[in-house]
Amino acid sequence: MEKICVFCGSSSGTEPVYEAKAEETGRLLADRGISLVYGGGDAGLMGAVSRAHGEGEGKTIGIIPRALWDKVPHRESVELHVVEDMHRRKAMMYEMSDGFIALPGGIGTLEELFEAFTWNQLGYMDKPLGLLNSGGYFDDLISFLDGMVDRGFLKTIHRERLAVSDDPEELLALMEKSPGGYVGKWG
């Protein structure tokens, strides 16, 4: 994986571990020579992961919709792409990236993660997905997804494609071992 897209909140959340893990993720990607693709803002966890990645001299690529350009702070040292809307932002993120990691965030973070998850399931792409479960943030979501498998609404083969860890290095290793090639396997 040469470019990883990180989905995360434009807020820092209530627990210091969220920002600490975002910074750790940014540094890890930079140390590994992996470019960061992200939402383009310099606030909250988005800013934390981007700044940490930039400090490690990694290539940082932000993609921001025109409507948010004047509303959110952004870093000058980032290769920034201003696009027409959220749909183009996500499409560009998915096209540019070799894998995706979701850090804690809100509805937008979940929406981006689930669209990438869906695109993988439907065969539009075949790229590793990961959840960085900082401080147990995604525990309820993980239980919900496992319940979807138990109730027959999500195939095990698709659920297994979502790597989960609270450690960025372990998560990256799991993503690198992602089974892949599951496109079209519905049974």
Give structural attributes.
alpha/beta; seven-stranded parallel sheet; 7 strands; 187 residues; Rossmann fold
Secondary structure: elements and pairs:
Elements: E1 3-7, H1 16-31, E2 35-38, H2 44-55, E3 60-65, H3 66-69, E4 79-83, H4 86-96, E5 99-102, H5 107-122, E6 129-132, H6 139-150, H7 156-159, E7 162-165, H8 168-176
Parallel strand pairs: 1-2, 1-5, 2-3, 3-4, 5-6, 6-7
Descriptive account of the structure:
The chain is of the alpha/beta class and 187 residues long. It has one domain: 3-Layer(aba) Sandwich (Rossmann fold), CATH 3.40.50.450. 45% of the residues lie in helices and 17% in strands. Strands 4-3-2-1-5-6-7 form a 7-stranded parallel β-sheet, sandwiched between helices. α1 runs parallel beside α2.
